[in-house]
Amino acid sequence: MTAVLEVSNLSKHYGGIAAVDGVTFEVFEGEILGIIGPNGSGKSTLFNCILGQASPSAGEVKLDGKPVTGMRPCDLNRHGVGRTFQMLQVFPALSVRENLILAGQEHQGTAVGRLFGRADAGLSATVERMIEFFRLTPVADLRAGGLSFGQQKLLDCAMAFMAGPRLVLLDEPAGGVNPTMLGSLGERLRALNAEHRATFVVIEHNMEFVMSLCTRILVLAEGKIIAEGPPEQVRRDPKVIEAYLGN
Amino acid sequence: MTLQRLAVPGAILAGIIALALAPYGLKNYGISILGLWAVTTIAAIGLNLTLGYAGQVSLAQGAFVGIGAYATAILMAKGVPFGATLLLSGLLCFAIGWLLGYPALRVQHHYLAFVTLAFATLAFLVFRNEQWLTGGIYGISGIRRPVILGWNTAPERAYFHFCLIMLVLVSGFVWWIVRSPWGRAFLALRENPVRAASLGVDTRRYTLMAFAIGAGIGGVAGALYAPLVTYIDPVPFALSFSLNLLLMVIVGGGGYFFGPFVGAMIAVLLPEWLRFAQGLYLVAYAAAVMVLLVFWPSGIMGILDRLLRPADPNQGAAR
Ligand SMILES: Nc1ncnc2c1ncn2[C@@H]1O[C@H](COP(=O)(O)OP(=O)(O)O)[C@@H](O)[C@H]1O
Ligand SMILES: [Mg+2]
């Protein structure tokens, strides 16, 4: 198995607090890795340090064996790493279609080419496929801000996949999504993983969702990895139970 | 459907024809004011790209108009043909605007306003103090209106028509940019730079570009301004001009394509029509601006936008 992402000894301090404290792990091609842990255990901070959104205090991040620590988020994205944020981040004033074009356009040709080329950056067909895949057809021409929360979450995810990334990091994709929508989100993510061999790292609070989606799970508590393994094993781990009950 | 689609281009065409015919019913003074409106609108269009579309505050647009005007006046005095000075003024301001964009990568909002304000002040001091270059407080006089491809633009009406053509060209250029993927990236930069970057939008490059293109258009406005008034000195390019341009963009409607046209109309034409009210006009203008910005921060185009399509709140923001 080849490691797509290697994180070694990553730390992030805020003042005296170690939000992430010497975290080391690998993500293998084609897997869906889950990251769970109590609130404030450093999951989002870990993502932000991996993705260049925050600069790590120490440690290294490698993509395909090449160091990418501190690389700008937009450059990481162009290297094929997509992400979503914990808070919903679509562009509410743009239509669903426009949101998706935006999410893919910077991967099309050169900057000058995009200025003089087509308004849709040649992405209309890809956008249609993505809209169909995420079941957004009925709302495709509506402003994203007018969609239901669940639909916006779907759009948010769809945007992360627009450029055909090899690795996608999703921060609580199921947060606040109703059970029906949740089912279709999980199913869509599994389909993407199966059909395109896209590799995922998923932070999730919803245990049922994460246990059914992921092939391997990391447990974070107070910035450290306290457990790692397949879902059933992690579920029974006394350290994990303690970390969750302790909070 | 077809009729609706023709409505906007039809209205624009009608507007252009009306503007082209307007000088025939006006005296020279009226025509020169109309020319001033056209040039000011061009400057405001540039700022609208920087501020309205890309969300980068700039209090330096007036300085770029000044730089363009001085560059053109100085170069023309040295015998450089107007076509070349127009291009050079635009390019010079593009380059300086690019450099001014760097602070924007570090600071935002009111801090950025102060940085650009400092630049505007600096530019004014250069216009006023570097007498060897700019003529200092005496300025540069005797700026000739050009002959363009055999067309003598010296008469008031001809020069206005030339400014109008430039306004149409600049508008078309900016329309092209904002409807292209660049326009979408500018909007993303304004609305949510962090999310934009995570989608591959190089926020650094687009920030610099937003400043550079906006400034370059300001430089073109300046190049047109110099032969319009035939005499330039530092006074019109003081900080108040930059503030005025900022007001025009915001009052007209930042991020709306036609916002600068409306904003410049209010700032340039209205005072002329309301001349009899003099001091009172300024008071009324100031009060109106305050009311507008408190209750309708999206400006006059924002109000029109809402009035024209109140029924479908779900339409994409076709600005
Ligand atoms: N920008 C920041 N400044 C200061 N402290 C922060 C910042 N971001 C996160 N933290 C702190 O780091 C810790 C981990 O937060 P976070 O990564 O959001 O946890 P999680 O995503 O697991 O809920 C928390 O104690 C939080 O208060
Ligand atoms: Mg979090």
Q: What can you see in these coordinates?
A:
The complex is a heterodimer of chains A (247) and B (319). Chain A is of the alpha/beta class and 247 residues long. Helix content of chain A is 38%, strand content 25%. Chain A has helices at 43-50, 73-78, 96-105, 111-116, 124-133, 149-161, 179-196, 207-213, 231-236, 238-246; strands at 3-14, 17-28, 32-36, 58-63, 66-67, 81-83, 167-171, 199-203, 216-221, 224-229. A six-stranded mixed β-sheet of chain A has the order 6-7-8-3-9-10, with helices on both faces. Chain A has a four-stranded antiparallel β-sheet with strand order 2-1-4-5. In chain A, α3 (96-105) crosses α5 and α3 (96-105) runs parallel beside α6. The longest helix of chain A is centred in the last third of the chain and has 18 residues, at 179-196. The mean pLDDT of chain A is 93. Chain B is mainly α and 319 residues long. Chain B has a domain at 15-237. Chain B contains 14 helices and two strands. A two-stranded antiparallel ribbon of chain B has the order 1-2. In chain B, β1 and β2 form a beta hairpin. Chains A and B meet through α2, α3 and α4 of A and α8, α9 and α10 of B. Bound molecules: adenosine-5'-diphosphate and magnesium ion (MG). Magnesium ion binds next to α1 of chain A.
Reconstruct the topology from this structure.
The complex is a heterodimer of chains A (247) and B (319).
Chain A: E1 3-14, E2 17-28, E3 32-36, H1 43-50, E4 58-63, E5 66-67, H2 73-78, E6 81-83, H3 96-105, H4 111-116, H5 124-133, H6 149-161, E7 167-171, H7 179-196, E8 199-203, H8 207-213, E9 216-221, E10 224-229, H9 231-236, H10 238-246
Helix pairs in contact in A: 3-5, 3-6
Chain B: H1 2-21, H2 28-53, H3 61-77, H4 82-106, H5 109-129, H6 131-134, E1 147-148, E2 151-152, H7 156-179, H8 181-191, H9 193-198, H10 203-229, H11 239-252, H12 259-273, H13 278-295, H14 299-308
Antiparallel strand pairs in B: 1-2
Helix pairs in contact in B: 2-7, 2-10, 2-11, 2-12, 3-4, 3-5, 3-10, 4-10, 8-10, 11-12, 11-14
Bound molecules: adenosine-5'-diphosphate (ADP) and magnesium ion.
